[in-house]
Amino acid sequence: MAVPVPGGRATWGSKLGFILAAAGSAIGLGNIWRFPYVTYENGGGVFVLLYLIAIVCLGLPVMLAELTIGRHTARNPVGAFRMIAPNWRFVGYLGVLTGVAILSYYGVVAGWTIGYVVKSAAGSLDPDDFGTFIADPALQVGYLLAFLTATVVVVAFGVKNGIERMAQILMPLLLLLMLGLVIRGLTLPTAAEGLRFYLYPDFGAVTVKTVIFAVGQAFFSLSLGMGAMITYGSYINKKDNLATSALAVVSFDTCIALLAGFLIFPVIGASITKGGPTLVFVTMIEQFNLMAGGRWVALLFFVLLAIAALTSTVSLLEVATSYMVDELGMKRLKAVLSVGAVTILLGIPSALSLGAADGLTDLANGKGFLNIMDFLFGNVSLAFGALLTCIFLVYRWGISNAAAEVQSAYPGFARFVPLWRILLGVIAPAAIAAMLVYIIATGEGLG
Ligand code: PFF
Fold this sequence. Notes:
It is a single chain. By secondary structure, this protein is mainly alpha-helical. The protein has 18 helices and no strands. The longest helix has 39 residues. The protein binds 4-fluoro-L-phenylalanine (PFF). The site of 4-fluoro-L-phenylalanine has 16 residues, from helix 1, helix 2, helix 5, helix 10 and helix 14.
């Protein structure tokens, strides 16, 4: 049963509903597409270890910070910062802008998942197709449009009837598909070799870059730094325990990333010749084609990716939508349609930047429009947003005010407050600032 808050703002139907929705936001292409290839490129097992450290020491405290700001204010990110400290509302605006920008190119890659569902269903999976596929303007724009339309439809139904209901159906399905595919992968002859690479930590491979990438992957994967979790937190019931909710979402997301490694590395085994974004769309297909019934395994795999992507795109759209509904007093449907339209327009140059339009494929240092958007918004802006959120919570709002919000439903949180203060006030800002300096100085995106 939904308990309406004063003013009639929606809340999640249940704590589990929130956890599934927020885990849905967190679990996305970042876990299943990006985590494996970033792991591959950064030393395998040792990267996994650093990633886990980053999740526990940085991801969890910042997740709790965002949920707490959201639940306390029951507002979108702009309204949330404005309510506590009006001068800080720019952090909210940055989040709204970042959400739309990320959605515009994330939707392009999400569109590929539908393309590959279609290809697997039609039995026409060819690993050499990828280059032509991403350079086809009609397919790229068409699938982007299809994916964003699906996202708009879900968000238009609202928080409880759209996002939560979708998550309640799709997240269990995602888990089931994942487990089925992991079991299939582990029984392949290539499994041992792949797993050795995935899990064996090569400490010699640790560089500053490895550490930075682990931190960046942790934030991106948990959907932190742009107010998505402030927005989702704003619909949490006052009686719910925020600390256990944050822990559940973080654990769920991390388990799925780790499982994605257990799914992908056994399948590719020793055939890892090339990392990068094509790991999933080319290397996996080479292997599926060698497998008995591989076409159907491929179909399930791409359905899994599409589901993961949809539950994330929905959260990216919800941030700007909630801003327009709360702050500009727009009707939800009108807000969703306007943001959706802007996102599609902004997504077109990304969709065309992978070979379709010459002018967009190489804008700076060999990077095309999509890569530049990812660098600016998926890397720099998210990191900046997360940094500001930590500083805001500790040095502006005050840790005791934030802690009071958590303690209202969980008095025992008191014993964790000193640790939370150090992690948010010192450790996380230092790590994020180092990451920001690194990515800006090197121009190297985390993807
Ligand atoms: N966490 C998502 C993923 O791992 O794919 C991506 C993402 C979604 C980032 C929502 C940020 C966000 F607000």
